[in-house]
Specification:
By secondary structure, the protein is mainly beta. It contains two helices and seven strands; from the N terminus they run ααβββββββ.
């Protein structure tokens, strides 16, 4: 399925009104890279330690300088659960859906759901490949494929 086709249909999980505003958002580099099918995440500009998306100060050296670069679209499930939450008008699905904490090969950790609907959560240690779902006009990282441990 191409990115154009994915955008033509609504996101499987959330209503498009929940799409983030990209202009001026601190996560703009993430969203811009995601639109190209890449994952760009922040690193400390002084010591190159991976930093969290909303982290302002490096845990290692205390620097506030950062840069973004693309990282490999692969990781491992650190933890996972099924979310049993229904919010009519916001959450589209009526069944539980997976929320997964993935440790990427870059050292970053992201909490994601899946590109396509799923009614089970992957096991801890499962290898995953990151893809993208579209919420409104914004590409968002999500788990695309699961691999054997």
């Amino acid at each position: 399925m191409t990115a154009t086709n994915e955008r033509a249909s609504a996101d499987w999980l959330l209503d498009d009104t929940l799409a983030p505003a990209v202009d001026g958002d601190s996560l703009a580099p993430l969203y811009e890279a995601a639109e190209r099918g890449e994952l760009a995440l922040p690193f400390c500009a002084v010591c190159a330690l991976p930093v969290e998306l909303d982290q302002e100060i490096c845990d290692n050296c205390g620097s506030s300088e950062q840069y973004s670069r693309t990282v490999e679209l692969r990781g491992t499930v650190h933890s996972a659960t099924l979310m049993h939450r229904r919010e009519p008008g916001l959450v589209r699905v009526q069944k539980p859906y997976p929320i997964v904490d993935v440790e990427l090969h870059s050292g970053h950790r992201l909490v994601l759901t899946t590109v396509r609907p799923a009614d089970t959560a992957p096991a801890i240690g499962t290898k995953v490949t990151i893809g993208f779902r579209h919420l409104g006009n914004v590409a968002i990282p999500a788990i695309d494929t699961l691999e054997d441990k």
